[in-house]
């Protein structure tokens, strides 16, 4: 520590230069993290907010199109409700519609059909909850798109009219589209393409997209599937069925992995050059009897100080930059746990890069201290 | 730091071969040397004679191929590399050519650094007092690049003495100094050697300063003879 801190002060221009590089990497990392959380929110926050443990789709439905293709009936819901570990099961319907409000605002919605009173019922932060036969409870983000409570939406082609009666407290989106909850009965008519005044065929009267299951960790999905003729997946797995979700997250993850690798290399390269510059000095210290551990600790303290300082600066800068993106429509959401984790990972990788450089040089032969500078 | 009685440095039959494979050089060839506590011994000899190698072996930086090296009665040739590092830290002082101070540290911090090398350093000399003893109190806050060669060498000597070593090893301390500075530096070494009862071995090319030494030995082709 003694030497490490004095060297930091003495060679501050060099350390500042390298710290700026790390800070810029941290800025990038924050922006990527915000973008990736933002995209996840945009893609699946509607599913995340549901108090659901698992979804059961009709047997044989492929996961990547499950939310648009699967159809389950009341019998399958009833069988799931009887499974051990299942606290509740309810029919759940999804579909995407294009609508236009009475004030001329065109808006696409992901309709979540739920039975009013079931555990899937959303809480409205403003307006009234789910109940009216044609009443919608919409995501808070739909307000940004220009919807207001009391607006009447007309569904394209079918012509059904729906009224916005309530708004949720936070963002509920699915596949980058705002979620609107509506009573399952209304959802069934829309899903069947039945316009106002037409009759729903009895066969379609008990349909839904999936069985939403709530329970503890002990649910045996395979046993439930066998009993109900479904393919059940956990809620987290079902995110993969959200449009575009898998491709977006894997692209961002790849970019992040590269960023981490680059930062480890940059820090490692800096410390390699730095420690090689200090070869003679380190040999003198070794000759004076400094233990290898002493040199290693000293170098790691230096690395830790620079990394934490520059990453803190970078995170602050990135957060400020991200704040500016707020109103631009770019999906961006900073989440403290994600940013903390990423920062810690940057520090750890930087330390790893520094340690590999220092270990090699700490093994220097103290003999090199004798005689002049070689 | 230790309760062992001071008996100085004893090398007997020390042989050191350097290089690998085909080009093996016998840097030290059956060298015998005894340096008593409080004695300043100068080692002279032509370049490549093995003078630095002698310091390396006496200072536990490397172990000889043959022979024994004892300091205060303790055989250092049988120690592990880690134990030798700890032994150097606690019992041996090195003064290198041109001082070899750490560029980031002030003169006072060069001395204080020694105290950070291990936890049990209650016996150390007071850095500020020691700096005053070598006449450098007025340079305490300067860094090496703001010091003259002679000043650096004095600070290097002070640094080597912080831990009250039994053995002081000095490699060409006056190589970068003019005549007057050289005398001052070697006089300082002689004075400290007497006062602290340390056994001192000084390698030098500078025949002017030999008058301050108790004894001069000459090294030629790895062999030692009375000078
Ligand atoms: N690492 C090494 N590998 C092989 N040979 C070496 C090595 N270091 C020194 N030598 C050889 O060992 C011999 C003694 O070297 P040493 O450095 O002890 O000489 P010296 O008397 O200190 O010379 P100088 O006065 O030039 O400093 C020389 O012949 C030198 O070439
Ligand atoms: Mg030499």
Automatic annotation (TrEMBL), chain A:
Transmembrane spans: 257-277, 298-321, 341-364
Classification via InterPro entries: ABC-4/HrtB_transporter, ABC3_permease_C
Record's keyword terms, sorted: Cell membrane, Membrane, Transmembrane, Transmembrane helix, Transport
Record's keyword annotation contains Nucleotide-binding: no
Pfam families recorded: FtsX
Membrane topology, from the record: Multi-pass membrane protein
Coiled coil stretches, renumbered: none
Annotated ranges, domain ABC3 transporter permease C-terminal: 257-366
Cell compartment(s), UniProt: Cell membrane
Official protein name in the record: ABC transporter permease
Organism: Micromonospora echinofusca
Lineage, uppermost ranks: Bacteria, Bacillati, Actinomycetota, Actinomycetes, Micromonosporales
Automatic annotation (TrEMBL), chain B:
Domain ABC transporter: 9-227
Molecular-function GO terms, alphabetical: ATP binding
Cited InterPro entries: AAA+_ATPase, ABC_transporter-like_ATP-bd, ABC_transporter-like_CS, ABC_transpr_LolD-like, MacB-like_ATP-bd, P-loop_NTPase
Cited Pfam families: ABC_tran
Keywords: ATP-binding, Nucleotide-binding, Transport
Name used for this protein in its record: ATP-binding cassette domain-containing protein
SUPFAM superfamilies membership: P-loop containing nucleoside triphosphate hydrolases
């Amino acid at each position: 520590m003694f030497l490490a801190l004095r060297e930091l002060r003495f060679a501050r221009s060099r350390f500042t230069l390298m710290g700026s590089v790390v800070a810029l990497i941290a800025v990038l990392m924050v922006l990527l993290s915000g973008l990736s959380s933002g995209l996840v929110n945009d893609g699946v926050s509607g599913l995340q907010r549901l108090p659901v443990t698992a979804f059961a789709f009709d047997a044989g439905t492929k996961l990547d199109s499950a939310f648009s293709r699967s159809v389950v009936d009341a019998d399958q819901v009833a069988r799931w409700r009887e499974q051990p570990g299942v606290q509740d099961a309810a029919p759940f319907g999804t579909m995407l519609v294009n609508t236009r409000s009475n004030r001329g605002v065109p808006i696409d919605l992901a309709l979540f059909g739920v039975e009013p009173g079931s555990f899937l019922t959303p809480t409205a932060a403003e307006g009234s909850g789910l109940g009216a036969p044609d009443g919608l409870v919409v995501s808070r983000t739909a307000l940004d798109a220009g919807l207001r409570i009391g607006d009447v939406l007309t569904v394209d082609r079918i012509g059904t009219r729906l009224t916005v009666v309530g708004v949720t407290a936070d963002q509920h989106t699915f596949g980058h589209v705002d979620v609107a909850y509506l009573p399952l009965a209304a959802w069934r008519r829309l899903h069947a393409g039945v316009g106002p005044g037409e009759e729903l065929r009895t066969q379609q009267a008990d349909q839904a997209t999936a069985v939403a299951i709530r329970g503890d960790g002990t649910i045996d999905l395979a046993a439930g599937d066998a009993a109900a003729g479904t393919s059940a997946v956990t809620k987290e797995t079902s995110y993969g069925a959200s449009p575009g979700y898998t491709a977006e997250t894997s692209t961002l993850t790849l970019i992040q992995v590269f960023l981490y690798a680059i930062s480890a290399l940059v820090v490692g390269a800096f410390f390699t050059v730095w420690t090689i510059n200090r070869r003679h000095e380190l040999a003198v210290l070794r000759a004076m009897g400094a233990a290898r551990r002493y040199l290693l600790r000293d170098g790691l303290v230096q690395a830790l100080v620079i990394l934490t300082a520059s990453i803190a600066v970078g995170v602050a800068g990135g957060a400020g930059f991200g704040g500016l993106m707020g109103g631009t429509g770019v999906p961006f959401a900073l989440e403290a746990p994600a940013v903390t984790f990423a920062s810690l990972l940057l520090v750890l990788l930087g330390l790893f890069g520094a340690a590999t450089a220092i270990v090699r040089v700490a093994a220097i032969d103290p003999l090199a201290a004798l005689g002049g500078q070689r | 730091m230790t309760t062992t009685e001071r008996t100085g440095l004893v090398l007997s039959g020390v042989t050191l071969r350097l290089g690998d494979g085909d080009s093996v050089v016998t840097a030290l060839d059956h060298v015998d040397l005894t340096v008593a506590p409080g004695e300043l011994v100068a080692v002279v000899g032509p370049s490549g004679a093995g003078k630095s190698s002698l310091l390396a072996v006496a200072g536990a930086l490397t172990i000889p191929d043959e022979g024994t090296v004892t300091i205060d009665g303790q055989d250092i040739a049988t120690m592990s590399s880690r134990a030798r590092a700890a032994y150097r830290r606690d019992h041996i002082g090195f003064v290198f050519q041109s001082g070899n101070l750490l560029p980031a540290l002030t003169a006072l911090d060069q001395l204080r650094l020694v105290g950070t090398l291990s936890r049990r350093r209650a016996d150390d000399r007071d850095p500020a007092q020691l700096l005053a003893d070598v006449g450098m109190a007025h340079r305490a806050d300067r860094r090496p690049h703001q010091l003259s060669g002679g000043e650096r060498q004095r600070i290097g000597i002070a640094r080597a003495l912080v831990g009250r070593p039994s053995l002081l090893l000095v490699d060409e301390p006056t190589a970068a100094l003019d005549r007057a500075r050289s005398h001052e530096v070697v006089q300082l070494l002689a004075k400290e050697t007497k006062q602290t009862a340390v056994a001192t071995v000084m390698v030098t090319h500078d025949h002017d300063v030999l008058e301050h030494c108790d004894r001069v030995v000459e090294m030629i082709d790895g062999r030692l003879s009375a000078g």
